[in-house]
Amino acid sequence: MKTKFFLGLIFLFFLPIFFAFTLGQIPEAPASSPTLENTGVSLRQLAEQRGIQIGAAVNTYPLKSDRTYQQLLAREFNVVVPENAMKFELVHPQQDRFNFQEMDEIIAFAETHQMEFRHHPLVWDEQLPAWLVRGDFSRAELMDILKKHIQTIVKRYRGKVKTIDVVNEGVARDGTLRDTLWLRGIGPEYIDLSFIWAHEADPEAKLFFNEFSAEEMGAKSNAVYDLVQGLQQRGVPIHGVGLQMHKALNNQPKIEEIAQNVARLGELGLEVQITEMDIAIPEVAGADFSQQLQEQAKIYGDSVKMCVAAKNCTAIIFWGFSDRYTWMTSLIGQGGNPLIFDKFFRPKPAYTAVKEALKQ
Ligand code: G3I
Predict the structure, then answer these.
(1) Are residues 98 and 152 in contact, defined by beta-carbon separation less than 8 angstroms?
(2) How many structural domains compose the chain?
(3) What pLDDT was estimated at residue 2?
(4) Are the C-beta atoms of 355 and 40 separated by less than 8 Å?
(5) Tell me: the pLDDT tens digits for 308-359?
(6) From atom 41 of ligand 1, which residue's Cα is the shortest distance away?
(7) CATH number reported for the structural domain that contains residue 174 in this entry
(8) Is residue 106 situated within a structural domain?
(9) DSSP code for 32
(10) Kind of pairing, strands 206-211 and 163-168?
(11) What is the spatial distance between Cα 13 and Cα 15, in angstroms, rounded to a whole number?
């Protein structure tokens, strides 16, 4: 009886640890922060010399708890983007209540380290709170909710935040407008209205339309092009397009096509920013990992070179910076090792490739 009881206790003790490992929440080695390697001149210094921004999405958990994470973030980057802190469900959890705690913490960090903070995303169809999804609101009510959401956030940080992803992922793969709560409830004009309301709240801020899988030429990027041109023709304030660049070794970016896409957006007078870059390494049995790291580095280097060479490409932002904290582990369950520092904050070949590209 006693033995069973103790075995049960041991099982209960190890169960959460097992799940944490399975879900990839804990890297294989002890969580102690290693000392940072001295890598000489930082990406941030090089980018600043070039007049380009270099940034990373920020995960609030390590920002509060991991000293090495904080040091490396401040040393290498001059822009931070909240990976989740500004998602609707977190920042606006109840209809009449906002929660700015996590955003305030990230902005305080950015200010301390003279970094810019990019709003992401004001309007999206994911991570929406139950009160909104199940609300059964009329069109007029939804418009009020969206306007209040946009303007409360933008006004609170007016003057501190210079760049805003206003509408995120509004276009579907086939080039039609994505079927979202906002499209269904308000109609296609929700996009115009979002930009207009953001501009009213902060006329100085640069407003971006941010999209995934719209990097290369094709149906989706054509639709994004038409959409932003339409905004301009209607006199709606828009200043740029964010190309996310979530790619992988088995889904490599076609750099020449991306350069072509960036250039045509430039002809509209728009900036382009690479807003969420990561390059996943798929788990392939028998693959040579060091070879895969070199392939990954080449893609990072070529992408950064492309941006540096394009006059209207003004920022390169990675969706995180250390493989220790990546959405690929927490959301998809596969590590992917998609970033430029490894799980122990050591620079990967991709880091060196980004650095070399910034030097050219
Ligand atoms: O924090 C909660 C936790 O309290 C809860 O118990 C748990 C159970 O579901 O969820 C946790 O929240 C998750 C959050 O990530 C933090 O880990 C959400 O469910 C999960 O949906 C969320 O995923 C984020 C995803 O956007 C959806 O918002 C990813 O971290 C984030 O990297 C990802 O970022 C997006 C960009 O914003 C837009 N472009 C694509 C990109 C990658 O998907």
Answers:
(1) yes
(2) 1
(3) 44
(4) no
(5) 999 999 999 999 999 999 998 866 666 799 999 999 999 999 999 999 999 9
(6) 276
(7) 3.20.20.80
(8) yes
(9) P
(10) parallel
(11) 6
Residue 16 placed within a domain: no
The reply to whether 276 belongs to the active site is: yes
Q: Residue 59 contacts by C-beta under 8 Å, 6 or more apart in sequence?
A: 83, 84, 320, 325
Ligand 1 atom index nearest CA of 57: 32
pLDDT average per 10 residues of sequence, the chain (360 residues) = 44 42 41 70 97 96 95 98 98 98 98 98 98 97 98 97 98 97 98 98 98 98 98 98 97 98 98 98 92 98 98 98 90 82 96 96
SS (H, E, C) 139-160: HHHHHHHHHHHHHHHHHHCCCC
257 is a catalytic site residue: no
- pTM: predicted TM-score of the whole model, two decimal places: 0.91
DSSP alpha helix (H) spans, the chain? 2-22, 43-50, 60-65, 67-76, 88-91, 101-112, 130-133, 139-156, 181-186, 190-201, 219-233, 255-267, 289-309, 327, 349-359
Convert the pLDDT of each residue in 68-109 to its tens digit.
999 999 999 999 999 999 999 999 999 999 999 999 999 999
Whether omega for the bond prior to residue 121 falls within 30 degrees of 0, making it cis, is yes
pLDDT at 38: 83
Are 351 and 36 contacting, i.e. CB atoms less than 8 angstroms apart?
no
Q: Which residue, judged by its Cα, is nearest atom 18 of ligand 1? A: 127
Q: Token pair of 325, please?
A: 């904290």
Range of the domain at 313: 39-359
- Residue closest via CA to ligand 1's atom 35 equals 83
Pocket of ligand 1 (CB under 6 A): 83-84, 87, 126-127, 168, 212, 244, 276, 327, 330-331
